[in-house]
Structure formats: structure tokens, C-alpha cells
Specification:
The chain is of the alpha+beta class. Among the domains are: 107 residues, no CATH class; 81 residues, Orthogonal Bundle (Helix Hairpins); 144 residues, Heat Shock Protein 90. The strands form 4 sheets. It has a 5-stranded antiparallel sheet with strand order 5-4-8-7-6. The N terminus is likely disordered.
């Protein structure tokens, strides 16, 4: 059990996974489903609301059309209609309204009423006697009739607790000063139409609810199927340990999830190789360091009181300690090779650098040293690291040649590629050893002095320096016998 910086207790399970107590996280499957339901709910609600809005607009258009139609028919009848008893135009508003109303057939939610003013009271009305499916029709609501009759507007909406009335009014023309005021009123009651719209809206909401339920089930199943590789990745990651990196995710399909599984498997491959190399490196380093330690301990345990023996023991112990120091320094150098600042490129004259390497290498042994060629070119590289690699190659050539044998050093440039090489005339390297010798703590078996006195890190350092410059180190046979090591630096800038 550990404690977070904020003081919240945390627990660590058997796989090393740390979880916060009291903190409940929603899984990706649940989050996907919740977002899907949210979007679906918003979409379905918007569709239902939009449908209701369209239907209400249709009710408005229909009611307005009915009001305009009835008003227009009455206006035309008033202008051109004749009294059937006299055959002449109407002169009395009562007669006009009565005859017109007798000839009309109103819709179920529509009222046609004729109103004639009476002194000191409500206006007299002429109606088509019938029952309407509304709570309080206009012809039974004296207050509503008075408000419509007295309104200066030709149309409007009257809001009542029993339901609204949409109305239109046409004033009857007066032929003399003694004629009373009269008007034709058409009223439309939209309650049933609006109720039908609301019923459709409720049905749509019910259908949306069922759709959401179906979406929940389908979305849960589909999300689970899509996220199954992700769960496998999480499970595999939780079960991974440094001792067991062999688990892999089964890849199915060709979608992004399959690509994620492939990427995770590739990462596991790299991790497995890295851990294996690390373990091998530690084992080899332990083996290489164990030998000088054993030698030092053995000599110290057997050292007697004789001054000559003590002097020889000190010399041997010092020699072994120096060898251990070189191994440790080489290991630190190889570890630093993984850092981005391992090499520090700068403009360097390649011919001058090659000549300096040649001068330094001549002191390594009594050999026939030759500076065969130099590239007259300026390029960017780390002169210290390149010198270190070339001197190491020269030292390797000295170890596998005898006095008087030829060792050639040179450099050349071809296009964007720069090469520096060391060629010896020794016994060469067997084909099956050519990749082996660049590994840490590994040595070839065919060179003179098969095991030598080194730890087998020199060529690994050369390889690390070459790769740090974005290049590589190559090995091929020297013409006439021997081995040639070439540092190839690709894309060098001149």
C-alpha cells in the first residue's frame, strides 16, 4: 500500500497495477454507449420536436386558409348576392346574414356567426344550430362575441381558459344612417387539431424511447465486440512481467483496432529483445568481471612474505584492476551511446582527421603503416568519436598481425557518403564470425590470438559510434588477405 502526494491511499495489485481507492472510472465501453445514447436522444428529440413544429404550422395554415376562404365567400355574397324573395340586392343586414348562413356547411371545428348590434345589449346572432366538439362554443359565449364584435381588427386570436379561438370578421356595409352595425364572424377552434399533433408527438417520443432501448442493447454488444482487442491489450499489459514477455494479442480484421493490436505486439517484440539483450549483457559483463576478480583474490590469498613475490603479486593485481577499469569504462561508453548527445557533430576537414588518426595509430605497434588515401572534403562529424573508433580498429589490426605486416588507413568520399577504413594483412575473419564480432563480449575464433586480452567490447564501441553518426561499420576481405573495416557515414554534409 502506498500514499499519493495528496494523501489518498492507493493499492497495488499482484500485477503491479496501482489503483486509487474510492475512485470509480467508467470503462471505454460505457462511455461510448453513453455518448451514443446522448447523441441518439438529442437527435430523436429534435426529430420529434421538429415534426410537431411542422404539424402545428400546418394547423396554422389550415385555420388561416379556412378563415380567409369563409371571409372571402361572405364578402363576395354581400357584393353580388340577391335576396331570393325580392330578387334584388340585400338592404337589411339581418336578412343578408340569415340567407348566407342557411346556404353554408361549416367544418366540424368551425363556427359561422352573424352579429347585429342591439341597443343596450349584446349583439343579436344568427347561427347554424349544431353541436361543436369544444368546451364552450363561441355562440354560447356572450363575452367572447362582444370582444370580437367590438375589436377594430379584421382577424385575431382570442385566448380563453376553455381554449383559444382563431377568428376573422367581415363588417356588413351600412346603406343608411339608421341601419345597425353588423358583422359576419368565422371562428375556428384548433383544440382537436392541436390534440392530434400532441398525440403524434407523444407517439414519436414513445418510438424514440423504444429506439433508445434497442440502441442500448445493440450499442453495448457492438462496443464490446469493437473494444475486445483493447481489453486483450489491457489484460496482456497487466500480465506482463520482466520474466514473461511472450504473450501476444491475437489480430483479427484490418481496422484500427487490429492495427493497435499489431503495434502492441511489435512493441512487445522490441521489449522482449531489449530485455533479452539486457540480461545477456548483464550475464556477459558479470562473467568478464568475475575472472579478474577471481585472479585478484587468488593472488592476494596466496601472497607470501617474500618481497619479490609480493612485488609480482602487486603487478598482477594492478594489471587485472586496470583491465576491470577498462571494461567498466567501455560499458559506460556503450551505455552513453543510447543518449542523444553521444556524438557532437562539427565541421571537420576529413583529410586532416585521417592524417591525425594515422599519426596516432603508428604508435600502437611495429607495423608497416601506410596512409593510402585521404578525402579532401569538409564534413560534419564528431572528430573525437571518429578518432576513437579508428584507433580502436587500428588496435584491433595490430592484435591480429605480426611485426612488419602492412596496415593501411585511409578515407574517401562518394557523393553524400563518407568512408574511413582500416585494412590489415592478417588472417582475416571467417564468414560466420563477421556479425558475431560486433556484439558485446564476443570475439572471433579465426584471428590471431583468438581470445586476446580484451573484453570483446572494442568493435561494439566502433559500431555504436558509427550508428551514432547515422552510419554503419562494414567488414570485408582485404585484397591479398586480411580484413578491412569501413566506417560508412551516410548523408554526411560537406
Amino acid at each position: 500500500m502506498t500514499t499519493t502526494r495528496a494523501g489518498t491511499p492507493r493499492t497495488t495489485d499482484a500485477t503491479g497495477t496501482t489503483a486509487d481507492r474510492g475512485r470509480r472510472r467508467l470503462s471505454a465501453r460505457v462511455r461510448i454507449l453513453l455518448w451514443l445514447l446522448f447523441v441518439m436522444a438529442v437527435a430523436l428529440t429534435s426529430v420529434a420536436a421538429t415534426t410537431r413544429s411542422f404539424l402545428l404550422r400546418d394547423v396554422d395554415h389550415r385555420s388561416n386558409g379556412l378563415l380567409a376562404q369563409e371571409s372571402g365567400e361572405f364578402a363576395a355574397f354581400e357584393e353580388r348576392g340577391l335576396d331570393p324573395e325580392t330578387g334584388r340586392p340585400f338592404t337589411e343586414p339581418d336578412r343578408l346574414l340569415k340567407v348566407f348562413l342557411e346556404r353554408q356547411y361549416a367544418d366540424p371545428d368551425e363556427e359561422l356567426i352573424g352579429l347585429v348590434a342591439r341597443p343596450g345589449g349584446d349583439p343579436a346572432q344568427f347561427i347554424q344550430p349544431r353541436d361543436l366538439p369544444v368546451a364552450l362554443p363561441l355562440h354560447r359565449d356572450a363575452d367572447a362575441r362582444r370582444r370580437i364584435f367590438d375589436s377594430p381588427d379584421p382577424s385575431g386570436v382570442l385566448h380563453r381558459p376553455e381554449g383559444e379561438i382563431r377568428w376573422a370578421k367581415v363588417a356588413v356595409a351600412r346603406h343608411g344612417d339608421g341601419d345597425p352595425e353588423a358583422a359576419f364572424v368565422v371562428a375556428f377552434h384548433p383544440e382537436r387539431e392541436v390534440a392530434r399533433v400532441d398525440e403524434v408527438f407523444r407517439v414519436l417520443l414513445a418510438i424514440s424511447g423504444v429506439a433508445l432501448l434497442l440502441t442500448t442493447g445493440i450499442g453495448w454488444a457492438v462496443a464490446g465486440r469493437i473494444l475486445q482487442p483493447v481489453r486483450l491489450v489491457r489484460t496482456a499489459a497487466a500480465q506482463l512481467t520482466e520474466q514473461d514477455l511472450t504473450r501476444r494479442i491475437p489480430v483479427r480484421g484490418h481496422d484500427d483496432i487490429a492495427a493497435l493490436a499489431e503495434t502492441f505486439n511489435a512493441m512487445l517484440d522490441r521489449l522482449e529483445r531489449a530485455f533479452a539483450a539486457q540480461r545477456q549483457f548483464v550475464d556477459d559483463a558479470g562473467h568478464e568481471l568475475r575472472t579478474p576478480i577471481t585472479i585478484v583474490r587468488g593472488h592476494l590469498e596466496l601472497m607470501g612474505d617474500d618481497p619479490a613475490e609480493r612485488e609480482e603479486t602487486v603487478r598482477l593485481v594492478t594489471d587485472e584492476l586496470d583491465r576491470m577499469s577498462r571494461i567498466v569504462e567501455d560499458l559506460l561508453l556503450l551505455a552513453k551511446a543510447e543518449r542523444p548527445d553521444f556524438v557532437t557533430p562539427e565541421p571537420v576537414q576529413l583529410a586532416e582527421l585521417t592524417a591525425d588518426v594515422y599519426v596516432k595509430a603508428r604508435t600502437l605497434g611495429d607495423r608497416d603503416w601506410r596512409l593510402t588515401e585521404t578525402a579532401d572534403r569538409e564534413t560534419e562529424l564528431d572528430p573525437q568519436r571518429i578518432t576513437q573508433a579508428m584507433v580502436q580498429l587500428a588496435q584491433n589490426a595490430v592484435q591480429h598481425t605480426t611485426a612488419g605486416q602492412t596496415i593501411r588507413i585511409g578515407s574517401r568520399a562518394e557523393g553524400s557518403r563518407v568512408e574511413l577504413y582500416v585494412a590489415d594483412s592478417g588472417p582475416g575473419v571467417r564468414p560466420h564470425d563477421r556479425e558475431l564480432i560486433f556484439e558485446r563480449f564476443r570475439r572471433g575464433t579465426s584471428r590471431r590470438g583468438a581470445r586476446g586480452s580484451g573484453a570483446g567490447l572494442g568493435l561494439s564501441i566502433v559500431k555504436a559510434i558509427a550508428e551514432g553518426h547515422g552510419g554503419q561499420v562494414r567488414l570485408h576481405d582485404t585484397e591479398g588477405g586480411g580484413a578491412t573495416f569501413v566506417l560508412t557515414l551516410e548523408e554526411a554534409r560537406g
